[in-house]
Protein backbone atom coordinates (compact mmCIF):
# COMPACT_ATOMS: atom_id res chain seq x y z
CA UNK A 1 0.00 0.00 0.00
CA UNK A 2 2.77 2.41 0.96
CA UNK A 3 4.69 1.46 -2.22
CA UNK A 4 1.68 2.32 -4.45
CA UNK A 5 1.23 5.63 -2.62
CA UNK A 6 4.88 6.48 -3.17
CA UNK A 7 4.59 5.75 -6.92
CA UNK A 8 1.51 7.99 -7.21
CA UNK A 9 3.28 10.82 -5.36
CA UNK A 10 6.32 10.52 -7.64
CA UNK A 11 4.10 10.73 -10.74
CA UNK A 12 2.24 13.77 -9.39
CA UNK A 13 5.51 15.46 -8.47
CA UNK A 14 6.93 14.75 -11.92
CA UNK A 15 3.86 16.22 -13.57
CA UNK A 16 4.09 19.36 -11.44
CA UNK A 17 7.81 19.66 -12.16
CA UNK A 18 7.17 19.34 -15.91
CA UNK A 19 4.43 21.97 -15.73
CA UNK A 20 6.70 24.40 -13.91
CA UNK A 21 9.58 23.71 -16.33
CA UNK A 22 7.42 24.25 -19.44
CA UNK A 23 5.84 27.36 -17.97
CA UNK A 24 9.30 28.75 -17.29
CA UNK A 25 10.37 28.07 -20.89
CA UNK A 26 7.25 29.76 -22.22
CA UNK A 27 7.84 32.81 -20.03
CA UNK A 28 11.47 33.02 -21.14
CA UNK A 29 10.39 32.79 -24.77
CA UNK A 30 8.08 35.77 -24.43
CA UNK A 31 9.66 39.09 -25.46
CA UNK A 32 9.98 41.56 -22.62
CA UNK A 33 7.75 44.61 -22.88
CA UNK A 34 9.79 47.43 -24.36
CA UNK A 35 10.65 50.24 -21.98
CA UNK A 36 9.33 53.54 -23.29
CA UNK A 37 10.47 57.09 -22.82
CA UNK A 38 6.95 58.29 -23.73
CA UNK A 39 3.83 56.13 -23.74
CA UNK A 40 0.75 58.19 -24.62
CA UNK A 41 -1.97 58.21 -27.32
CA UNK A 42 -0.86 59.88 -30.54
CA UNK A 43 -4.48 60.79 -31.40
CA UNK A 44 -4.44 63.15 -28.43
CA UNK A 45 -1.56 65.23 -29.82
CA UNK A 46 -2.91 68.68 -30.77
CA UNK A 47 0.29 70.63 -31.27
CA UNK A 48 3.95 69.86 -32.00
CA UNK A 49 7.00 72.08 -31.88
CA UNK A 50 10.20 70.86 -33.50
CA UNK A 51 13.23 72.95 -32.55
CA UNK A 52 16.54 72.70 -34.32
CA UNK A 53 19.61 74.87 -34.26
CA UNK A 54 18.71 76.59 -37.52
CA UNK A 55 14.90 76.73 -37.26
CA UNK A 56 11.76 76.03 -35.26
CA UNK A 57 8.64 74.51 -36.82
CA UNK A 58 5.21 74.53 -35.18
CA UNK A 59 2.34 72.24 -36.21
CA UNK A 60 -1.24 72.61 -34.99
CA UNK A 61 -4.44 70.68 -35.66
CA UNK A 62 -7.47 72.57 -36.94
CA UNK A 63 -11.07 71.87 -35.90
CA UNK A 64 -11.35 69.11 -38.54
CA UNK A 65 -8.22 67.32 -37.36
CA UNK A 66 -6.00 68.47 -40.25
CA UNK A 67 -2.41 69.45 -39.55
CA UNK A 68 -1.29 73.01 -40.30
CA UNK A 69 2.13 74.62 -40.17
CA UNK A 70 1.79 77.82 -38.14
CA UNK A 71 5.46 78.76 -37.76
CA UNK A 72 7.69 79.90 -39.48
CA UNK A 73 4.87 80.34 -42.06
CA UNK A 74 1.20 79.43 -42.39
CA UNK A 75 0.50 76.53 -44.73
CA UNK A 76 -1.20 73.15 -44.95
CA UNK A 77 0.98 70.34 -43.62
CA UNK A 78 1.56 66.88 -45.06
CA UNK A 79 -0.63 64.76 -42.77
CA UNK A 80 1.50 61.64 -43.24
CA UNK A 81 4.75 63.34 -42.27
CA UNK A 82 3.37 65.13 -39.18
CA UNK A 83 1.49 62.03 -38.05
CA UNK A 84 4.82 60.20 -38.12
CA UNK A 85 6.21 62.64 -35.54
CA UNK A 86 3.11 62.28 -33.37
CA UNK A 87 3.14 58.47 -33.63
CA UNK A 88 6.87 57.97 -33.12
CA UNK A 89 7.34 60.39 -30.22
CA UNK A 90 4.11 59.70 -28.31
CA UNK A 91 5.10 56.04 -28.14
CA UNK A 92 8.87 56.32 -27.98
CA UNK A 93 10.69 53.09 -27.31
CA UNK A 94 14.02 52.96 -25.52
CA UNK A 95 16.68 50.89 -27.21
CA UNK A 96 18.98 51.01 -24.18
CA UNK A 97 19.47 53.05 -21.01
CA UNK A 98 22.92 54.63 -21.14
CA UNK A 99 23.06 56.43 -17.81
CA UNK A 100 20.53 56.63 -14.98
CA UNK A 101 22.04 59.66 -13.22
CA UNK A 102 23.85 61.84 -15.77
CA UNK A 103 24.84 65.31 -14.69
CA UNK A 104 26.28 66.37 -18.04
CA UNK A 105 23.98 65.63 -21.06
CA UNK A 106 26.30 67.76 -23.18
CA UNK A 107 28.78 64.90 -23.52
CA UNK A 108 26.05 63.09 -25.53
CA UNK A 109 25.37 66.10 -27.75
CA UNK A 110 22.17 66.94 -25.86
CA UNK A 111 20.38 69.17 -26.66
CA UNK A 112 20.71 69.09 -30.44
CA UNK A 113 17.02 68.90 -31.37
CA UNK A 114 13.89 69.21 -29.26
CA UNK A 115 10.38 67.85 -29.79
CA UNK A 116 7.49 69.19 -27.72
CA UNK A 117 4.18 67.33 -27.87
CA UNK A 118 1.08 69.09 -26.56
CA UNK A 119 -1.55 66.53 -25.55
CA UNK A 120 -5.25 67.11 -25.07
CA UNK A 121 -6.19 67.64 -21.41
CA UNK A 122 -2.52 68.05 -20.37
CA UNK A 123 -1.35 71.43 -19.18
CA UNK A 124 2.35 70.92 -19.86
CA UNK A 125 3.88 69.52 -23.05
CA UNK A 126 5.98 66.38 -23.15
CA UNK A 127 9.50 67.35 -24.27
CA UNK A 128 12.16 65.07 -25.67
CA UNK A 129 15.63 66.31 -26.52
CA UNK A 130 17.98 64.35 -28.73
CA UNK A 131 21.72 64.44 -29.16
CA UNK A 132 24.34 62.87 -31.37
CA UNK A 133 24.39 59.39 -32.85
CA UNK A 134 25.89 56.50 -30.95
CA UNK A 135 28.84 55.44 -33.18
CA UNK A 136 28.26 51.75 -32.35
CA UNK A 137 24.68 51.37 -33.60
CA UNK A 138 23.69 54.83 -34.99
CA UNK A 139 20.87 55.14 -32.44
CA UNK A 140 20.30 58.61 -31.00
CA UNK A 141 21.08 59.72 -27.48
CA UNK A 142 17.97 61.26 -25.93
CA UNK A 143 16.50 62.55 -22.70
CA UNK A 144 12.98 63.39 -21.63
CA UNK A 145 12.77 66.77 -19.93
CA UNK A 146 12.28 66.28 -16.21
CA UNK A 147 14.19 62.96 -16.14
CA UNK A 148 17.85 62.39 -15.36
CA UNK A 149 18.46 59.20 -17.38
CA UNK A 150 20.12 59.29 -20.79
CA UNK A 151 18.79 56.70 -23.25
CA UNK A 152 19.22 55.55 -26.81
CA UNK A 153 16.21 55.82 -29.14
CA UNK A 154 15.78 54.29 -32.66
CA UNK A 155 18.06 55.54 -35.41
CA UNK A 156 15.25 56.05 -37.96
CA UNK A 157 14.16 59.15 -36.01
CA UNK A 158 17.23 60.99 -37.28
CA UNK A 159 15.82 61.40 -40.81
CA UNK A 160 12.50 62.63 -39.44
CA UNK A 161 14.15 65.23 -37.22
CA UNK A 162 16.34 66.54 -40.02
CA UNK A 163 13.45 67.34 -42.37
CA UNK A 164 12.99 70.97 -43.40
CA UNK A 165 9.80 73.05 -43.52
CA UNK A 166 9.34 72.18 -47.20
CA UNK A 167 9.39 68.46 -46.39
CA UNK A 168 6.48 68.89 -43.99
CA UNK A 169 4.34 70.98 -46.35
CA UNK A 170 1.38 69.62 -48.27
CA UNK A 171 2.71 69.53 -51.84
CA UNK A 172 -0.69 68.93 -53.48
CA UNK A 173 -2.05 72.46 -53.28
CA UNK A 174 -4.44 72.39 -56.27
CA UNK A 175 -6.62 69.47 -55.21
CA UNK A 176 -10.28 69.23 -56.24
CA UNK A 177 -12.94 66.52 -56.47
CA UNK A 178 -12.36 65.06 -59.91
CA UNK A 179 -15.75 63.34 -60.14
CA UNK A 180 -17.53 66.69 -59.71
CA UNK A 181 -15.97 68.24 -62.83
CA UNK A 182 -18.63 68.66 -65.53
CA UNK A 183 -16.73 70.40 -68.31
CA UNK A 184 -13.15 70.99 -69.45
CA UNK A 185 -11.76 73.69 -71.73
CA UNK A 186 -8.14 73.06 -72.68
CA UNK A 187 -5.61 75.08 -74.62
CA UNK A 188 -2.10 73.66 -74.93
CA UNK A 189 0.04 75.35 -77.56
CA UNK A 190 -1.92 74.95 -80.80
CA UNK A 191 -4.15 72.27 -79.32
CA UNK A 192 -7.62 73.35 -78.23
CA UNK A 193 -10.62 71.27 -77.22
CA UNK A 194 -13.70 71.25 -75.02
CA UNK A 195 -15.35 68.24 -73.36
CA UNK A 196 -18.52 67.87 -71.31
CA UNK A 197 -19.73 65.14 -68.98
CA UNK A 198 -23.07 63.43 -69.55
CA UNK A 199 -23.90 60.96 -66.80
CA UNK A 200 -20.78 58.82 -66.45
CA UNK A 201 -19.53 59.55 -69.97
CA UNK A 202 -17.42 62.31 -71.43
CA UNK A 203 -18.00 63.79 -74.90
CA UNK A 204 -15.79 66.06 -76.94
CA UNK A 205 -17.72 69.13 -78.12
CA UNK A 206 -14.98 71.07 -79.93
CA UNK A 207 -13.27 70.90 -82.39
CA UNK A 208 -15.24 67.69 -83.09
CA UNK A 209 -17.98 65.73 -81.39
CA UNK A 210 -17.11 62.29 -80.11
CA UNK A 211 -17.33 59.96 -77.16
CA UNK A 212 -14.11 60.23 -75.13
CA UNK A 213 -12.16 57.32 -73.71
CA UNK A 214 -12.96 57.70 -70.01
CA UNK A 215 -9.46 56.87 -68.80
CA UNK A 216 -8.03 59.78 -70.79
CA UNK A 217 -10.22 62.30 -68.97
CA UNK A 218 -9.82 60.72 -65.53
CA UNK A 219 -6.06 60.61 -66.11
CA UNK A 220 -5.96 64.30 -67.01
CA UNK A 221 -8.09 65.36 -64.03
CA UNK A 222 -6.09 63.19 -61.63
CA UNK A 223 -2.82 64.64 -62.93
CA UNK A 224 -4.08 68.19 -62.32
CA UNK A 225 -5.49 67.42 -58.86
CA UNK A 226 -2.31 65.56 -57.87
CA UNK A 227 0.13 68.22 -59.07
CA UNK A 228 2.91 68.40 -56.49
CA UNK A 229 5.05 71.41 -55.77
CA UNK A 230 8.75 70.83 -56.29
CA UNK A 231 9.32 74.32 -54.97
CA UNK A 232 7.10 77.11 -53.66
CA UNK A 233 8.05 80.08 -55.84
CA UNK A 234 5.56 82.58 -54.42
CA UNK A 235 3.33 82.38 -51.35
CA UNK A 236 1.15 85.36 -52.36
CA UNK A 237 1.53 85.84 -56.10
CA UNK A 238 1.82 89.40 -57.32
CA UNK A 239 1.10 90.72 -60.79
CA UNK A 240 4.78 91.19 -61.53
CA UNK A 241 5.48 87.57 -60.47
CA UNK A 242 2.66 86.26 -62.66
CA UNK A 243 4.19 88.16 -65.59
CA UNK A 244 7.73 87.05 -64.70
CA UNK A 245 6.79 83.38 -65.11
CA UNK A 246 4.52 84.15 -68.12
CA UNK A 247 1.49 82.81 -66.25
CA UNK A 248 -0.58 85.78 -67.45
CA UNK A 249 -0.27 84.36 -70.99
CA UNK A 250 0.55 80.70 -70.32
CA UNK A 251 1.24 78.15 -73.02
CA UNK A 252 -1.06 75.71 -71.22
CA UNK A 253 -4.41 76.64 -69.72
CA UNK A 254 -7.18 74.36 -68.44
CA UNK A 255 -10.54 75.59 -67.17
CA UNK A 256 -12.68 73.20 -65.09
CA UNK A 257 -16.31 73.70 -64.18
CA UNK A 258 -17.49 72.20 -60.85
CA UNK A 259 -21.22 73.03 -60.53
CA UNK A 260 -21.70 71.24 -57.20
CA UNK A 261 -18.98 73.42 -55.66
CA UNK A 262 -20.26 76.44 -57.61
CA UNK A 263 -16.70 76.92 -58.81
CA UNK A 264 -14.74 77.44 -61.98
CA UNK A 265 -11.02 76.88 -61.59
CA UNK A 266 -8.46 77.81 -64.22
CA UNK A 267 -5.03 76.16 -64.27
CA UNK A 268 -2.22 78.21 -65.79
CA UNK A 269 0.94 76.23 -66.56
CA UNK A 270 4.02 77.46 -68.36
CA UNK A 271 7.52 76.16 -69.01
CA UNK A 272 10.30 78.70 -68.72
CA UNK A 273 13.79 77.56 -69.61
CA UNK A 274 14.03 74.15 -67.94
CA UNK A 275 11.41 74.66 -65.22
CA UNK A 276 7.62 74.31 -65.28
CA UNK A 277 5.52 76.71 -63.22
CA UNK A 278 1.85 76.50 -62.25
CA UNK A 279 -0.89 78.39 -60.46
CA UNK A 280 -4.69 78.44 -60.45
CA UNK A 281 -7.36 81.10 -60.28
CA UNK A 282 -8.22 79.89 -56.76
CA UNK A 283 -4.67 79.74 -55.41
CA UNK A 284 -2.43 82.49 -54.07
CA UNK A 285 0.70 80.45 -54.81
CA UNK A 286 3.03 79.93 -57.73
CA UNK A 287 4.86 76.61 -57.63
CA UNK A 288 7.34 74.68 -59.71
CA UNK A 289 5.99 71.29 -60.81
CA UNK A 290 7.25 68.26 -62.73
CA UNK A 291 7.08 68.75 -66.50
CA UNK A 292 5.39 65.35 -66.98
CA UNK A 293 2.05 67.19 -66.81
CA UNK A 294 2.86 68.78 -70.19
CA UNK A 295 2.70 65.42 -71.95
CA UNK A 296 -0.78 64.84 -70.53
CA UNK A 297 -1.93 68.29 -71.63
CA UNK A 298 -0.40 67.90 -75.08
CA UNK A 299 -2.71 65.17 -76.39
CA UNK A 300 -4.74 66.21 -79.41
CA UNK A 301 -8.50 65.53 -79.58
CA UNK A 302 -8.06 62.50 -81.84
CA UNK A 303 -5.99 60.75 -79.15
CA UNK A 304 -8.80 61.20 -76.63
CA UNK A 305 -11.51 59.51 -78.69
CA UNK A 306 -13.05 56.23 -77.57
CA UNK A 307 -11.94 53.73 -80.20
CA UNK A 308 -14.27 50.91 -79.17
CA UNK A 309 -17.33 50.67 -81.41
CA UNK A 310 -19.47 49.45 -78.52
CA UNK A 311 -18.47 49.86 -74.88
CA UNK A 312 -19.80 46.86 -72.94
CA UNK A 313 -18.71 43.60 -71.32
CA UNK A 314 -19.61 40.43 -73.20
CA UNK A 315 -20.51 38.49 -70.04
CA UNK A 316 -23.24 41.06 -69.33
CA UNK A 317 -25.00 40.29 -72.64
CA UNK A 318 -28.48 38.83 -72.11
CA UNK A 319 -29.95 39.07 -75.58
CA UNK A 320 -28.81 39.47 -79.18
CA UNK A 321 -30.82 40.23 -82.28
CA UNK A 322 -29.58 40.18 -85.88
CA UNK A 323 -31.62 41.74 -88.66
CA UNK A 324 -30.82 41.38 -92.34
CA UNK A 325 -32.93 41.78 -95.48
CA UNK A 326 -34.90 38.56 -95.16
CA UNK A 327 -33.81 37.52 -91.69
CA UNK A 328 -34.59 38.46 -88.11
CA UNK A 329 -33.20 36.14 -85.48
CA UNK A 330 -33.11 36.68 -81.70
CA UNK A 331 -31.44 34.65 -78.96
CA UNK A 332 -31.68 35.11 -75.20
CA UNK A 333 -29.57 33.81 -72.33
CA UNK A 334 -31.26 32.00 -69.45
CA UNK A 335 -30.30 31.79 -65.78
CA UNK A 336 -27.98 28.85 -66.51
CA UNK A 337 -26.04 30.91 -69.09
CA UNK A 338 -27.47 28.87 -71.96
CA UNK A 339 -28.79 30.49 -75.13
CA UNK A 340 -32.24 29.87 -76.66
CA UNK A 341 -34.07 31.25 -79.66
CA UNK A 342 -36.67 33.84 -78.72
CA UNK A 343 -39.63 32.09 -80.31
CA UNK A 344 -42.48 29.85 -79.24
CA UNK A 345 -40.36 26.70 -79.34
CA UNK A 346 -37.52 28.27 -77.31
CA UNK A 347 -35.11 25.93 -79.10
CA UNK A 348 -31.56 25.74 -77.76
CA UNK A 349 -29.07 27.86 -79.71
CA UNK A 350 -25.34 27.41 -80.28
CA UNK A 351 -23.74 29.12 -77.28
CA UNK A 352 -20.21 29.04 -78.72
CA UNK A 353 -21.14 30.80 -81.97
CA UNK A 354 -23.32 33.43 -80.31
CA UNK A 355 -20.82 34.34 -77.63
CA UNK A 356 -17.99 34.38 -80.16
CA UNK A 357 -19.84 37.03 -82.19
CA UNK A 358 -20.62 39.04 -79.05
CA UNK A 359 -16.94 39.00 -77.99
CA UNK A 360 -15.85 40.07 -81.47
CA UNK A 361 -18.20 43.06 -81.34
CA UNK A 362 -17.03 43.88 -77.81
CA UNK A 363 -13.43 44.09 -79.08
CA UNK A 364 -14.06 46.04 -82.29
CA UNK A 365 -11.91 49.17 -82.44
CA UNK A 366 -11.73 51.99 -84.95
CA UNK A 367 -8.90 52.01 -87.44
CA UNK A 368 -10.31 55.31 -88.61
CA UNK A 369 -13.24 57.64 -87.83
CA UNK A 370 -15.56 59.23 -90.39
CA UNK A 371 -17.06 62.40 -88.99
CA UNK A 372 -20.06 64.36 -90.29
CA UNK A 373 -20.98 65.59 -92.76
CA UNK A 374 -21.17 62.40 -94.83
CA UNK A 375 -23.73 60.57 -96.93
CA UNK A 376 -24.75 57.28 -95.26
CA UNK A 377 -25.43 55.70 -98.68
CA UNK A 378 -21.76 56.07 -99.63
CA UNK A 379 -20.86 53.79 -96.74
CA UNK A 380 -23.71 51.33 -97.15
CA UNK A 381 -25.49 52.60 -94.08
CA UNK A 382 -28.65 54.00 -95.62
CA UNK A 383 -29.85 50.40 -95.90
CA UNK A 384 -27.41 48.47 -93.66
CA UNK A 385 -26.41 44.96 -94.64
CA UNK A 386 -27.06 43.97 -91.01
CA UNK A 387 -28.28 45.49 -87.77
CA UNK A 388 -27.03 43.89 -84.55
CA UNK A 389 -28.61 44.76 -81.21
CA UNK A 390 -27.10 43.45 -77.99
CA UNK A 391 -28.94 43.89 -74.69
CA UNK A 392 -26.63 44.05 -71.70
CA UNK A 393 -27.65 44.05 -68.05
CA UNK A 394 -25.51 45.81 -65.45
CA UNK A 395 -26.97 45.44 -61.96
CA UNK A 396 -30.66 46.22 -62.50
CA UNK A 397 -30.25 48.37 -65.61
CA UNK A 398 -30.62 47.03 -69.15
CA UNK A 399 -29.10 48.85 -72.13
CA UNK A 400 -29.53 48.11 -75.83
CA UNK A 401 -26.42 48.58 -77.99
CA UNK A 402 -27.13 48.70 -81.72
CA UNK A 403 -24.44 48.42 -84.38
CA UNK A 404 -25.23 49.04 -88.05
CA UNK A 405 -23.05 47.19 -90.58
CA UNK A 406 -22.24 48.92 -93.87
CA UNK A 407 -20.00 48.36 -96.90
CA UNK A 408 -16.62 46.69 -96.94
CA UNK A 409 -13.57 48.11 -98.62
CA UNK A 410 -10.23 46.52 -99.49
CA UNK A 411 -6.93 48.34 -99.16
CA UNK A 412 -3.27 47.50 -99.56
CA UNK A 413 -1.50 48.26 -96.31
CA UNK A 414 2.00 47.91 -94.95
CA UNK A 415 2.57 44.93 -92.68
CA UNK A 416 3.42 45.57 -89.08
CA UNK A 417 4.99 42.15 -88.43
CA UNK A 418 8.78 42.00 -87.94
CA UNK A 419 10.93 41.07 -90.96
CA UNK A 420 11.64 37.38 -91.43
CA UNK A 421 14.86 35.76 -92.67
CA UNK A 422 14.53 35.16 -96.43
CA UNK A 423 16.32 32.62 -98.63
CA UNK A 424 17.96 33.46 -102.01
CA UNK A 425 20.33 36.12 -103.35
CA UNK A 426 20.37 39.75 -102.29
CA UNK A 427 18.27 40.88 -105.29
CA UNK A 428 15.72 38.12 -104.72
CA UNK A 429 15.63 38.94 -101.03
CA UNK A 430 14.97 42.63 -101.72
CA UNK A 431 12.20 41.82 -104.21
CA UNK A 432 10.65 39.25 -101.88
CA UNK A 433 10.93 41.61 -98.94
CA UNK A 434 9.26 44.42 -100.91
CA UNK A 435 6.40 42.07 -101.83
CA UNK A 436 5.99 40.89 -98.24
CA UNK A 437 5.96 44.41 -96.80
CA UNK A 438 2.40 44.91 -97.99
CA UNK A 439 -0.82 42.98 -97.70
CA UNK A 440 -4.43 43.41 -98.71
CA UNK A 441 -6.86 44.04 -95.88
CA UNK A 442 -10.61 44.27 -95.81
CA UNK A 443 -12.35 46.86 -93.66
CA UNK A 444 -16.01 47.48 -92.89
CA UNK A 445 -17.87 50.68 -92.03
CA UNK A 446 -19.92 50.55 -88.83
CA UNK A 447 -22.15 52.92 -86.93
CA UNK A 448 -23.10 52.83 -83.29
CA UNK A 449 -26.74 53.94 -83.43
CA UNK A 450 -26.34 56.47 -80.62
CA UNK A 451 -23.30 58.23 -82.13
CA UNK A 452 -23.22 60.59 -85.11
CA UNK A 453 -19.98 59.37 -86.65
CA UNK A 454 -18.77 56.14 -88.28
CA UNK A 455 -16.07 53.60 -87.49
CA UNK A 456 -13.85 51.85 -89.99
CA UNK A 457 -12.80 48.49 -88.50
CA UNK A 458 -11.45 45.09 -89.51
CA UNK A 459 -14.10 42.97 -91.17
CA UNK A 460 -13.17 39.52 -89.82
CA UNK A 461 -16.20 39.33 -87.54
CA UNK A 462 -18.62 39.48 -90.50
CA UNK A 463 -18.27 35.75 -91.15
CA UNK A 464 -19.77 35.10 -87.73
CA UNK A 465 -23.00 36.98 -88.46
CA UNK A 466 -25.73 34.38 -89.19
CA UNK A 467 -27.11 34.20 -92.72
CA UNK A 468 -29.99 32.03 -91.56
CA UNK A 469 -31.45 30.76 -88.30
CA UNK A 470 -29.81 27.36 -88.95
CA UNK A 471 -26.39 28.97 -88.52
CA UNK A 472 -27.09 29.46 -84.81
CA UNK A 473 -28.84 26.17 -84.20
CA UNK A 474 -27.10 23.80 -81.84
CA UNK A 475 -25.42 20.88 -83.70
CA UNK A 476 -27.39 17.62 -83.68
CA UNK A 477 -24.65 15.66 -81.85
CA UNK A 478 -24.74 18.17 -78.97
CA UNK A 479 -28.49 17.77 -78.64
CA UNK A 480 -28.14 13.98 -78.58
CA UNK A 481 -25.44 14.25 -75.86
CA UNK A 482 -27.79 16.36 -73.73
CA UNK A 483 -30.62 13.80 -74.21
Question: Which helices and strands occur, and which strands form pairs?
Answer:
Layout: H1 2-29, E1 36-39, E2 45-51, E3 56-61, E4 67-71, E5 75-76, H2 79-90, E6 91-93, E7 96-99, E8 113-119, E9 126-133, E10 140-144, E11 150-153, H3 157-161, H4 165-168, E12 183-188, E13 191-198, E14 201-206, E15 210-211, H5 214-225, E16 231-234, H6 239-244, E17 252-258, E18 263-272, E19 275-280, E20 286-289, H7 292-297, H8 301-304, E21 317-324, E22 327-333, E23 339-341, H9 351-362, E24 368-370, E25 386-394, E26 397-414, H10 426-436, E27 438-448, E28 454-458, H11 476-482
Antiparallel strand pairs: 1-6, 2-3, 2-8, 3-4, 4-5, 7-11, 8-9, 9-10, 10-11, 12-13, 12-17, 13-14, 14-15, 16-20, 17-18, 18-19, 19-20, 21-22, 21-25, 22-23, 24-28, 25-26, 26-27, 27-28
How is this structure best described in words?
By secondary structure, the protein is of the alpha+beta class. The strands form 4 sheets. It has a 9-stranded antiparallel sheet with strand order 5-4-3-2-8-9-10-11-7. The chain is elongated, with a radius of gyration of 36 Å. It has helices spanning 2-29, 79-90, 157-161, 165-168, 214-225, 239-244, 292-297, 301-304, 351-362, 426-436, 476-482; strands spanning 36-39, 45-51, 56-61, 67-71, 75-76, 91-93, 96-99, 113-119, 126-133, 140-144, 150-153, 183-188, 191-198, 201-206, 210-211, 231-234, 252-258, 263-272, 275-280, 286-289, 317-324, 327-333, 339-341, 368-370, 386-394, 397-414, 438-448, 454-458. It has 3 domains: 36-168, Sandwich (Immunoglobulin-like); 178-304, no CATH class; 314-415 and 434-482, no CATH class. 22% of the residues lie in helices and 36% in strands.
Amino acid sequence: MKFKTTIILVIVFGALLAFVFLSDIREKGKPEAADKLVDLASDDVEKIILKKQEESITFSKDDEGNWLITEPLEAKADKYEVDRIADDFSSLEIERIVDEEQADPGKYGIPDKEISLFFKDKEEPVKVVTGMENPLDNNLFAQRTGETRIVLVPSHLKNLLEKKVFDFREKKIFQFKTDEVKSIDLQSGKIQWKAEKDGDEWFLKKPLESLVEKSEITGLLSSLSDLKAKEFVSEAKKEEEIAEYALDKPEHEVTLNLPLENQTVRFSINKKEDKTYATTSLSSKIVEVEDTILETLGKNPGELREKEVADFYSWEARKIQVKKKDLSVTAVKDGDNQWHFDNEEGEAADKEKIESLIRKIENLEAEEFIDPPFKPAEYGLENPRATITISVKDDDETEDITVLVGNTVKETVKKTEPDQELAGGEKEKDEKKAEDEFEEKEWVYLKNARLDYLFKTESGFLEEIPGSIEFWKKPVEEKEDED
